[in-house]
Amino acid sequence: MKKADVFEFYRRLGEANPHPETELESGNVFQLLVAVVLSAQATDAGVNKATRALFAEVGTPEQMVALGLDALKQHIRTIGLFNTKAKNVIALSEALVADHDGMVPADRAALEALPGVGRKTANVVMNVAFGAETFAVDTHIFRVGNRTGLARGKTPLAVERKLDAATPQPFRLHAHHWLILHGRYVCKARRPECWRCIVADLCAFKPKTPPPKTAASPPPA
To answer: Does residue 211 sit within a domain?
Structure first.
């Protein structure tokens, strides 16, 4: 995609949604970190449903450790891979207490050193909590980057690096959210809704998906 097209691509997404936000619910940075860890291979809606009661009870790493593994599992049992995720959340909470005075570090390397925290999770926290210009590549952004031609790559890291290189100011801070929301609601995996896409003319995907056919009206009686 040409530089002028990249700028226009983001300009349109930004005009349509000037202040994009994560759809994960949280009340502080620690809860955000936990929610992002739980969201791997799960929907934000499913995570929010499970964490509302949890976060009403737990707001700090110390409180999470005090809650304990078994009680945490009961809170998040509706989320996929909840056994492994519960172990990681307890372990990262213990690490935050032991190594960071109970605070979530504003550093990607330190975040990635926490149990259950990979590069994507660290990038999300850095962006949402600390205002870093990071590009967290999930399945939606990986698909949008490759399908549109905005940032093609065979791995999430390759797409991340291309997005980092291609995304200009003033769009870098919110690029992650614009792309993930576009992939979630418009540029869908099975059937992209090209007929209502505001950047369709800039996108390399062909052929464009036509609108769904409506059922024919029955003939008059």
So the answer is: no
pTM metric for this prediction = 0.90
5 is catalytic: no
Residues 60 and 119 in one domain: yes
Kindly provide the b/e burial profile for residues 92-101, where b requires at least 16 CB atoms within 10 angstroms of the residue's own CB.
bbbbbbeeee
State how far the Cα of 124 lies from the Cα of 126, in Å rounded to an integer: 5
Does residue 197 lie in a domain region?
Answer: yes
Asked, for residue 63, whether it belongs to a domain, the answer is yes
| pLDDT range class, residue 17, cuts 50, 70, 90 | very high
What distance in Å separates the CA atoms of residue 203 and residue 45, rounded to the nearest whole number? Answer: 29
Please indicate whether residue 120 is annotated as part of the active site: yes
Quote the CA–CA distance of 76 and 80 in Å, as a whole number. 9
From 44, 85, 87, 120, active-site residue: 120
3-class DSSP state for residue 81? coil
